[in-house]
Design goal:
Number of strands: 5
Number of helices: 16
Number of domains: 3
Strand content: 5-15%
Shape: globular
Radius of gyration: 21 Å
Structural class: alpha/beta
Helix content: 40-55%
Largest sheet: 5 strands, parallel
Order of helices and strands: HEHHEHEHEHEHHHHHHHHHH
Bound molecules: zinc ion
CATH topology of the largest domain: Rossmann fold
């Protein structure tokens, strides 16, 4: 039988209903994914987004999403410009302005996927006006658009919104399912043998979701390390986007080890891709959802004179480098190729 949503643990009903309709092309335009915190709502939305644009979605022998095609790789890494997340961003509600912004781009055809997906997190935080403003789009979106409204409680949404959407429910996992999943992670079996108490803590601390269990089992690399990597990546992204080739080369020489640099390089390239993605989205809209360049004023200044086509070329080159690094090339050679491919794109743009 075809593997559908293989990365989703439990939640068989969703795999069956949503996965199967995507596979045979009969999925709805709008879904409400309702479920308790940590029950996999975002995972469902991400997998569905990948499945909708997967190049192998019509191939019954491939898993859905296949995970290997160009579209899946971008979407599953959170790098696709065609998956747009709307959230409160720390505010109390999602207002009518955010929804207007969303609707302004609704009919623009997707960048490089077949479909564009809007994920509205904490959808119940939409104000009544925002929900009303969304109604017609939910009812008759362009055929390449699918909405996922995530919420812990669908009844908190207007009836008119609910009636225009298919409601799916994610479920908290049973202890067995959590344990089975944890044991698929590298190193987990070893911890269970060496430190059964810790393993037990992870199971009981999970409360039915994977995230907390993983955090207990593998206390995450310190936030500091992540912050440092983000900062480096933002620097490098700035050099590429603003065509400061000399600075980019100096950066590579200092950050990517000449020997055995592959792991460092693989880790950093992910952050660089996110940073460049931020900048290319900001070129299109000042209110675009960003992860790293949250200082929008500064970012806007940086990209003011950069043609969007050049931004897109840099992003493309970064995803190429990302793939090349997976095939065990020399890390430094790969990063230099990235710098020079961007330089070339920059020279061509001036012609
Ligand atoms: Zn695919």
């Amino acid at each position: 039988m075809r593997e559908i949503f293989g990365d989703l643990i439990g939640n068989e009903a969703i795999k069956h209903n949503l996965g199967a309709t995507i596979a045979d092309g009969t999925s709805s335009h709008a879904y409400i994914i309702e479920g308790p915190r940590g029950s996999g709502k975002r995972t469902v939305a991400r997998l569905a987004a990948a499945a909708l644009s997967c190049e192998n979605r019509r191939n019954g022998d491939a898993p859905l999403p296949c995970g290997g095609c160009a579209s899946c790789r971008k979407i599953l890494r959170g790098l696709s410009p065609d998956v747009i997340t709307v959230s409160t961003e720390g505010k109390a509600s999602i207002g009518v302005n955010e929804i207007r912004e969303l609707k302004a781009g609704l009919y623009v055809v997707p960048n490089d996927s077949d479909m564009r997906v809007y994920v509205i997190e904490e959808a119940d935080k939409m104000t009544v006006q925002a929900q009303n403003s969304l109604l017609i789009s939910l009812e008759e979106p362009p055929e390449f658009v699918t909405f996922f409204l995530l919420t812990e409680d669908a009844t908190a949404l207007l009836e008119t919104v609910r009636s225009r959407s298919t409601v799916l429910r994610t479920e908290i996992l049973g202890r067995d399912a959590v344990e089975k999943y944890l044991l698929t992670l590298p190193g987990a079996e070893g911890i269970r043998k060496r430190d059964p108490e810790k393993f037990e803590d992870a199971l009981s601390g999970s409360r039915g979701s994977i995230g907390p269990a993983k955090d207990i089992l593998f206390p995450s690399e310190s936030g500091k390390k992540v912050k440092a990597a983000e900062k480096k990546a933002m620097e490098f992204a700035e050099y590429l986007i603003t065509s400061r080739i000399g600075d980019a080369i100096t950066w590579v020489l200092s950050e990517i080890p000449a020997k055995k640099g592959l792991n460092v390089a693989k880790e950093l390239i992910g952050y660089v891709a996110t940073a460049v993605r931020d900048l290319t989205l900001l070129m299109k809209s000042r209110n675009a959802p960003v992860y790293l360049f949250t200082d929008r004023d500064r970012a806007a200044e940086m990209i003011a004179s950069v043609p969007p086509a050049y931004g897109a070329a840099v992003f493309e080159n970064v995803t190429v480098a990302m793939d090349r690094l997976e095939s065990n090339v020399s890390a430094r050679v790969c990063w230099f190729e990235l710098v020079f491919s961007c330089e070339k794109a920059g020279t061509n743009r001036n012609k």
